[in-house]
Amino acid sequence: MQFHGYQDLRSRLLSGELTCEQVITDYLQRIESSRDDNIFTAVFHDEAMARARELDNKLQRGEEPGKLFGMPIAIKDNISMKGAPLSCASKILAGYESVYDATVIERMLAEDAIFVGRTNMDEFAMGSSNENSAIGPVPNPYDKTRVPGGSSGGSAAAVAGDLAMVALGSDTGGSVRQPAGFCNIVGLKPTYGRISRYGLVAFASSFDQIGLLAANCDDAALVLGVIAGKDEHDATSSHHDVPEYDTTMDHVSIEGLRIGVPRAFFPESLNADVAGVVKAGLKKLEEAGAELVEIDLPESDYAIAAYYILVTAEASSNLARFDGARYGYRSPDSPDLSSMYVNSRTEGFGAEVKRRIMLGTYVLSAGYYDTYYKKAQQVRRVFQDKYREAFEKVDVIFGPTSPFPPFGIGDKMDNPLEMYLADVFTVPASIVGMPAISVPVGFDSLGLPVGVHLICNFFEEGKMLGIARHLQTLCQTVPSN
Amino acid sequence: MSVTKENVAYIAELARLKFTDAEQEKMTSELNMILHYIEKLNEVDTEGVEPLSTIHDQINVLRADVEHTPLSNEEALRNAPDKQDRFFKVPKVIG
Question: In the UniProt entry, which residues are flagged as the active site (chain A) (predicted)?
Fold first, then answer.
């Protein structure tokens, strides 16, 4: 059972050619047969089947179907869904069960979506390969010896393998976009504040955004339209109106589009094979009538340096709540309160999480605040000012999603800094808070997926999705299934 | 700037984490590698630049100060590692 995107599935459901029960049965069977790939941390078999039947009945009763009627969706294991387990792929949350619905879940349920399961990830969304997971790595669907990217590696692999039509992820510095690039799908990080984070486990609060992974831009736009917008439970959610994304997308034309091509995104260290595929995509846009504009942006290395000060500082504070007292893992070796804290955290957190808590605690400790944290916040403003300036001259900023193709499982686990550099092209958009998307544009000489990374100005998700859709069409990477 | 093994032991104490001697050794060299990379930031001229702490234009979003119960006592205690009556139970503080 295969579909040309959600509209195809929807029309076949509404015409009565198929039922939600048949569709979900099919998806659950595929999930079952991919079990060895470790993509899901939990599968909602019975719940999804019950909901499918309930939706079929709803349609039979003649009630109006919701915007996401029957859409099979996977959620990253750091988004709360009442009554379901939530682990953040960490031992410290083993056995935890959410006691409320995230706003995004509530809004999708109200539009008749069906959740099929929770997906594997780097522990607490810290990583670029999905290897920092307490339940083990996930193979890349295009080469099982390689990583699917991270931290939303399970969500990307789920959509790439058609185990879900759309998956929710979270993106702090590239955690939706980089795995989307590695798995040949679309990955969208919206403007900071566009989607409520109520119910998303916090990692770095001035960066975290819920994002979307989908096979095509239309499906991503549809779901974005449902979950975006003001939420009284999240003070950082934006009150900007949510536009009709499909209409905005339809108005985007490549003819006369000004594409900013910064040297900062094409350094000498960029993998030549990746550069070739990315530039071929750019050429197609130029041939379709776009104007290429050279722009000057600060080197992305500075964004990485500022990023790892700010996110580790915020993480060290956000993860202080995991102390063994109220929820999560408590060490059996807890004779007094102090040892309960220390032993629960030491036994519960994995290596990368500890490394980031340590770095963040250090940069915030007495005497170093100005040197690190304040300096990084100043650099953050320098970046934001430069990007604002760039958008006076261009409509979109173009570059590769990743400096190299998907790497081998284990290749970067001994060198944390090398792993951090995997996000060199995705972090700047997170530093400035603007929306960005990874679009599949082709394959390198080894047959590994290559993604193009587009950044637009604040709240221009519709325009960005429109450009991305054109690019996907020009590069013929819209799945034919 | 670099950290010593003693610094790492002190930071671990602040972060409520414990490391073996070998782990402390490894953490020291990893943190120094990352801190060395971070020094790049000194190349960026930030003289007189106001630090950026709020990403968008909404500052001080307020809501009505109305009492409500987002979680019942029972729900709040559902994931407790140990509890007694209506309370979280933890080991004694003073030995």
Answer: 76 (charge relay system), 151 (charge relay system), 175 (acyl-ester intermediate)
